Amino acid sequence: MSRPIDWNLIVQQYDQMVKYATALRLGTAEAETILRRFTRANVQHPTYRALAKLGKAIKTIFLCQYLQSEGLRREIHEALNIIESWNGVNTFIFYGRSGEIATHRLDEQEVSILCLHLKQNCLVYINTLMLQQVLLERAWLRRLTPEDRRGLTPLFHVHVKPYGRYSLDLEDRLPGLPLTQAG
Questions:
Q1: Helix/strand/coil (H/E/C) assignment for every residue in 37-103
Q2: Predicted TM-score (pTM) above 0.85
Q3: Do 140 and 75 sit in the same domain of this protein?
Q4: pLDDT tens, position by position, 14-29
Q5: Range of 89's domain?
Q6: Could you tell me if residue 169 is inside a domain?
Q7: Are residues 111 and 135 in the same domain?
């Protein structure tokens, strides 16, 4: 907002911008290598400057659309609420060490993240099955409005006990889970 966008620089560097974007898209160059080339010797590469200017133009266009459209603002707000809900669930189920990865060892970080992903997948799967069971009841189908159904999400955790003892019966199944044959 402090100075106008240098459209001439963007036009001059357009072919180079396309070249680098194509290299990234095709995987013939890594982003780290390109960024290293752009910032070498504390002199900003002209293509880097052009990409930054183009980014500012795109952000400005988006802000204008955001300010002009109540529907867009509402959609973004709803999406942010979903993300915040998901982050809250992650904080709850990734409870060990206050939900933080407290190691610098990559292998331990990977195991922690894989465990979190497993918990996320299990939570969403089980909650989806439970929602399906509830929605099979005609009383709920008649009671729920389209807005209610649109707001259904498997991102709830009030029924989850993060601490405590779990008894596992491999013969007992949740309703709706398919029975599988071993072997």
A1: HHCHHHCCCHHHHHHHHHHHHHHHHHHHHHHHCHHHHHHHHHHHHHHHHHHHHHHHHCCHHHHCCCC
A2: no
A3: yes
A4: 999 999 999 999 999 9
A5: 70-150
A6: no
A7: yes
